[in-house]
Design goal:
Helices cover about 55% and strands about 0% of the residues. It is mostly helical.
Length: about 375
């Protein structure tokens, strides 16, 4: 009997191993030529560099949470776990999450990322609102994986609502960092920040966005998007399209279709998209924008379209995903993208900020497709 049982267990183990191997082969075949392990290595390396970079250091032993490197990393790195066979967050994810939780816990004690005294008015208010949104987004994305809204996430979300504007042109939205850097820290980026806030609300598990105590705030936020929608470039509208998949009532059905149509219309002949076509950007050094297809635009468009319910069999989505599969750098694991602000050395740390975002969004879109 023991011998029979042993044989059964042996065969069961073989079957399990065979099924696992088949599943991994199916993943590999479905993903085409892109390499999840290389993407993770690139993202991990860039996150480690950012967290140790002296310019990113802040008080209480914390670091700034950046729109270009830290936030995309926090959103994309968990999406790679299935492909990599990981059960737990990577060490860099843990460090980033610990940093965010520490700043949320010490919210009344930590200094803003850019205080007025050092950077001029109104950088304190811009910094606090921007950080509040980014903290909430990172923690809500963490909790979405467990299905349980943690107390520190509730606190982070409460910080966001406490800083929501209730009057004036920004009513329903938030102050947002403006360093004249596109597309994240500029005068035109406030709707981008508001879309991230909406994403945080929609990602938060347990029906948070439907809870009665946030409905007045969401009504203000919907009103803000209704007022500013007509003035937005395609990049901001794509962020809003993504957020509208998480929170109802941010876009009308006509607006939703308009965003989809305008995005598809800017697809390039090679199947990708270029950030240059998603907004009226101008580099501050006067140099010409790179108009070739890039990973950030292609990743964002294909992700937003899929989130909005457009099938990956749709020609625009399928050719966009194929562009992503073909254009990962085989050596570094990253996807290409270039600065909208200056001509930068793409091999430099600062020159790779856009590629950090490009790689994260490519990962998010490709894993969404899977």
């Amino acid at each position: 009997m023991r011998r029979v049982t042993a044989v059964v267990f042996f065969l069961s183990g073989c079957v399990f191993s065979a099924l696992l191997a088949a599943g991994l082969r199916a993943w590999s075949n479905d993903q085409g030529s892109w390499n999840p392990k290389a993407a993770a290595a690139y993202l991990d390396g860039r996150a480690a560099w950012w967290m140790a970079w002296p310019n990113a250091a802040r008080d209480h032993g914390t670091f700034c949470v950046s729109c270009h490197t830290a936030v995309p990393y926090a959103l994309a790195r968990p999406a790679l776990r299935t492909a990599l066979g990981e059960r737990d967050p990577s060490p860099n994810e843990v460090k980033l999450l610990d940093n965010v939780v520490k700043r949320v816990t010490l919210w009344k004690d930590v200094a803003p990322f850019y205080p007025d005294q050092l950077r001029g008015l109104p950088k304190t208010s811009e910094s606090r609102a921007t950080e509040a949104i980014l903290n909430a987004l990172i923690l809500a994305n963490r909790d979405a994986q467990t299905g349980r809204l943690a107390d520190d996430t509730r606190a982070a979300l409460a910080n966001v609502w406490a800083l929501q504007m209730n009057t004036g042109e920004l009513s329903g939205a938030w102050a947002w960092l403006d360093f004249h850097y596109e597309p994240w820290e500029s005068a035109d980026a406030k709707p981008f920040g508001a879309a991230l806030a909406a994403l945080a609300m929609g990602m938060a598990p347990g029906g948070y966005a439907s809870s009665p105590d946030v409905q007045d705030n969401l009504k203000l936020l919907r009103g803000y998007f209704e007022r500013v929608y007509g003035r937005q470039h395609t990049f901001n509208r794509l962020m809003l399209l993504w957020a509208s998949a998480k929170v109802t009532g941010l876009l009308t059905s006509e607006q939703r279709q308009s965003v989809i149509d305008s995005a598809v219309a800017t697809q390039q002949s090679d199947g990708g998209w270029s950030m240059a076509s998603l907004g009226a950007w101008k580099r501050i050094d006067g140099s010409a924008l790179d108009t070739t297809s890039d990973g950030y635009a292609t990743g964002l468009v294909t992700l937003a379209l899929q989130q909005a319910g457009v099938s990956r069999a749709n020609p625009a989505v399928s050719t966009g995903l194929e562009w992503l599969r073909r254009n990962q750098n085989r050596t570094t694991g990253q996807w290409p993208a270039s600065s909208l602000n200056k001509q930068r050395d793409p091999a430099s740390d600062i020159g790779r900020f856009m590629s950090d975002a490009a790689t994260a969004y490519a990962v998010l879109s490709l894993t969404q497709a899977h």
